[in-house]
Design brief:
five-stranded antiparallel sheet; 58% helix; 15% strand; alpha+beta; elongated; disordered C terminus; 8 helices
């Protein structure tokens, strides 16, 4: 296997995608979808909603595009991988400088501090691991923070009119092709309402009497 020699792989990736823009778009979309699915699964799990079992294929395909957190996660994963790539190159150069100095306790300390993988495959594996692991860690923390806000009564509040709900304020969690998913703070339960059973959804705070008069 080839030894690592302070290569910056980000430049190679950018050069490759410039030559193959179609592949770049496909891979970027796939990775964004991956981030979206992780976020959806983690967020709805906080409310005991098995979202992956309820979602259609079309819902999964737009999971990354429709959720700002997924875009933020995707962008953060790329940024962290690029920064790690640069740090590997910097620490490699620093380590090489210390290797040339006379043996001492200080030299051993800095050689340990500036440890760099010896083989290219290890560096590439490390960068891939960072990109895959970051969304899981970030999304779990973000989903927990966002769910706690909703459970505390802070979120997008709506008035949902359906067979089981009439003018009841609920917090909107999201939706799929077949369901609108809300959270009832009083019962502390997530509610899945079939799309076909919903008469109307009104942003909480809007006067429903005015809406009825406009419809007439």
């Amino acid at each position: 296997m080839q030894a690592y020699n302070q290569e910056i792989y980000s430049k190679d990736v950018i050069r490759f995608f410039k030559q193959h823009p179609g592949m770049m778009a496909t891979m970027a979309y796939a990775m964004l979808t991956y981030c979206g699915l992780i976020y959806s699964y983690t967020f709805y799990a906080e409310f005991n909603v098995p979202i992956l079992k309820l979602a259609d294929l079309s819902d999964m395909l737009i999971a990354g595009i429709g959720e700002p957190a997924a875009i933020l996660t995707f962008s953060g994963g790329i940024a962290l991988a690029v920064i790690s790539d640069l740090l590997f190159a910097i620490t490699y150069r620093a380590r090489q400088r210390w290797r040339e100095k006379p043996d001492s306790l200080k030299k051993r300390f800095f050689l340990m501090l500036y440890y760099t993988p010896k083989r290219k495959i290890e560096v590439l594996g490390g960068l891939l691991f960072i990109f895959i692991a970051y969304p899981i860690i970030f999304v779990e923390l973000y989903a927990e923070w966002k769910s706690e806000k909703i459970k505390a009564g802070k979120g997008t509040s709506i008035i949902l009119t359906a067979e089981q709900y009439t003018n009841t304020p609920l917090f909107l969690l999201g939706s799929t092709t077949n369901f609108v998913i809300t959270y009832d703070v009083e019962s502390e339960l997530a509610v899945l309402t079939p799309i076909e059973g919903i008469e109307k959804i009104i942003p909480n705070g809007v006067n429903s009497t005015n809406i009825k008069s406009k419809e007439n």
